[in-house]
Amino acid sequence: MSGTPGTDALWARLSAAARAAVAAVDAERLEWERARLSPERRGAVTEPVYSVRRRFEAWERLGRILEAGPRPDEFYPFSAYENDLDGRDGLAGVMASLPLEARTELAGVLDALDTRFAAATEQDVTGALDPWLRSARGRAPRAHGWWWRVPKSAPW
Question: What CA–CA distance (Å, rounded) separates 122 from 146?
Answer without folding.
Answer: 10
